[in-house]
Every structure is written in C-alpha cells, then in structure tokens.
Design a protein that fits this description.
Elements lengths: L1 E2 L2 E7 L13 H18 L4 H4 L4 E12 L9 E11 L4 E9 L5 E13 L5 E2 L32 E6 L13 H9 L4 H4 L2 E10 L8 E8 L5 E6 L5 E11 L15
Antiparallel strand pairs: 1-2, 2-4, 3-6, 3-9, 4-5, 5-6, 6-7, 8-10, 9-12, 10-11, 11-12
Length: 263
Amino acid sequence: MITEGKYRHTYTSTASDITPTYKLTPNALLMYFQDSFARLMTIHDVAAFDIVKQHRMWVITEVQIDIQPTVAYWSEDFTVELWVSELTSLRIYCDFRIFRKDNGQLIASGTSQWNILNLDTKRLETTDFLADRLTVVPELMTGSHKKTRFPKPQSVDMQMEHRATRLDLDFNFHVSNRSYVSIALLTMPEEVLATQALASLTVHWLHETYLDDTLVCTMSRTADDGYLHKLTNAEGVVVCELLSRWQPQPEAADVSEVLNRDL
C-alpha cells in the first residue's frame, strides 16, 4: 500500500527472525526492509526482474540502522514503511522505519543508498529513467545522507577467516549483502554479546565476492566504544566494512510468558 509516496507492508515474524532476547535479528531487519524495497520497485515496474531486461541491476551500497530495544515475538505482525527520500544523478536514497503493528512501537529506522549497475560495462548508470516513476518524499530518518566516515583502527582485537559457501550466496551467485553482516558480527566478543544488544549498524558494501572466496574478518574497538569490522578478500581488498554500536541488554521476559501465541 502506498500513501502519500510512502509504501507499507506488514509481515509476520517467524522463529528464525527472533533473537533469544526477543528482538528482530539484524538479518531479519535487512531482509524485510529489502523485500519491501523490492515490492515498491515492482509497483513502479523497475524491480530487479524488470531492469535486468535492459542489462541493469540494483546494487545496495550503504545502510544505516538505529535499533530500539523493542521486543518482537514469534508470529506477531510488524510493518515496514519506506520511501525514496532523495534521488540524485547516480544514487537512490531510501529511508525506512519498522514498527510493531499492534501498538506502533518503533523497532528500527534508518536510511540506505542504492545504485543502478550496467551489467555489460560494470559501471554505474544515471537514475534519469527513474525520475518520472518514483515519488520523492524528502523526509530523512537520519541527519543527512552524507556518507559516514569510519574511524581508523589503532589495532586489531579479533581476526578470523571465512570461506564463502553456498549458504552465503544470493540469486546473482554473489555473497549476499546480509551474509557480510552475519559474518562480520561473528567477530564480536562473547562477553559483549552476553550483556549488550545491538543499538546501531552502519554498513558499506564495496566489492563483490563469490563461492569459495576466503574473507579475512577483523574487528577493532574504536575510541568511542564502537566496533569496526572489516572483510578483506585474498587480494587484500576491503569488500565490506561495518560499524556496530551496542547498548545494555534489557531484561528479557521468561520464555514461559511468551510460548503461547494467538494464531
């Protein structure tokens, strides 16, 4: 449903969407937001399966999400609301919010940057063909669309390797943008995960990787209590970088209080 340029779609959470402390997982936040984006583009006949006929492809290059300590239980409904907030010659900015359907309580909000890639030249294309199709609603969920500059790490606090498997791939046979986030967060210390909840996430996707590629994942603490995660390929090229911030974990309800759902 589109109202005043904003698209809304309601989903029902599944068991795999929920963390042990009853929050939507980072993967779920990204998945449902991107699914809503695809649905909005489908309405305007510029979805991935539409523009591929013109040898074009959608590419998400950045996302910034602020996450609230809002509970989300299995089988409950939540709504994604999103809109195109700015359209430049090369970039499409899409802002969004995710909230519980029953009481409107905010779960997460943020902004994202998308580009159109020419499949033949591998270069970015202009957004001219979108101008008369997409309605721009100049409401920003963040202060601006200026790219977040990540701090330079002074040291590496954690390092691991990950070899891309079929489970990491999307329908283009690239490592999925959500897989990069899941892999990067594996570098978080267990003592942080035991007491902290994710408060915000900023991701820059920089290069493609493929099946069997080996990614070196590093994590560095920043001076302002954040965590910088970098994924580097075998050639030493940074393919994805991510900044995560965490907040004290609120007390979770006992499982006996949330087992019985009204279906």
